[in-house]
Automatic annotation (TrEMBL):
The active site is at E229 (nucleophile). This is endo-1,4-beta-xylanase. It holds the Pfam family Glyco_hydro_10. It comes from Paenibacillus tritici. Residues 21-293 form the GH10 domain. It comes from the Bacteria. The keyword NADP does not apply. PANTHER family: BETA-XYLANASE, GLYCOSYL HYDROLASE. Keywords: Carbohydrate metabolism, Glycosidase, Hydrolase, Polysaccharide degradation, Signal, Xylan degradation. InterPro entries: GH, GH10, GH10_AS, GH10_dom. PROSITE patterns: GH10_1, GH10_2. It catalyses: Endohydrolysis of (1->4)-beta-D-xylosidic linkages in xylans.
Amino acid sequence: MAGNASAAITNGSKFLGNIIAGSAPGNFTTYWNQVTPENGTKWGSIEGNRNQMNWGNADMIYNYAISKNIPFKFHTLVWGSQEPNWVAGLSAAEQKAEISSFITQAGQRYSAKSAFVDVVNEPLHAKPSYRNAIGGDGSTGWDWVIWSFQQARAAFPNSKLLINEYGIIGDPSLTDKYVTIINHLKSRGLIDGIGIQCHHFNMDNVSVNTMNTVLNKLAATGLPIYVSELDITGDDNTQLARYQAKFPVLWNHPSVKGVTLWGYIQNQTWAANTHLVNSNGTERPAMKWLKQYLGGSSALMESTDAQDITDSVIQPDSVAEPQLQLDLQPVLESVPAE
């Protein structure tokens, strides 16, 4: 599927994707051939008020991916950070019924052409308030995660089910804990791939040796790896050097089947100086290098996507700022020393 997006900077067996927030940038498929919604498919975005479903942003991004014939990932079904505020106050029975309903409705709407689903996001760092209602720790220590994947398998029978977590790429000991969860799911036939976020607070300073150690630990499970939320910061020269040193470690590992960046346009990324394209449409050195490295610098641009970037820029989601606060808080408390 990814190979059909001829305008992207790569068209081989591995995809190079990015996120869409409020609307698709005019130059999205000039660079990328996979789509993940930044916020649009999170439960808190869809059902901010109980029983009032807002599928508009999710529908737009899903339909965009279909129209461009590139893989779509539903992100995410179960996550403690951006769950609806009203969930925590419900009884256990109501909580289970509500999360079950959300998963079922999401599957009915998007399972036909969702290539991937992030079933549980950040189980090591952001457990949902309702986890005891769906199994709690149980006999495995992760029964609530197993339950979530069982529900997702029924709702998204044709999608690859992924788990997703941050902090992994820079911490082999945390990777071991992650693998414990993964193996519980694998033994039950519930998981199809492993997501690792690779945000700047790990990637900027992680060593290549540590990266290889972590990737090999994950690969030993026999499951494919998907880099789900990559960003690297720095001034032009620093960011370039970091991409040159570390992106090939991810891209060339035989178990890594795709890489998704977490934003690329100046002033529209969740963290400063992670962008690859300036607000005026010019490319930073790391973007120019990435195109050259992937052999896509001479790729043809689709006429519908070659318009100036200012014609159709990403509009910040209404929950973009809370996401920044929610995602960063555990990071500040528990970023592993490298």
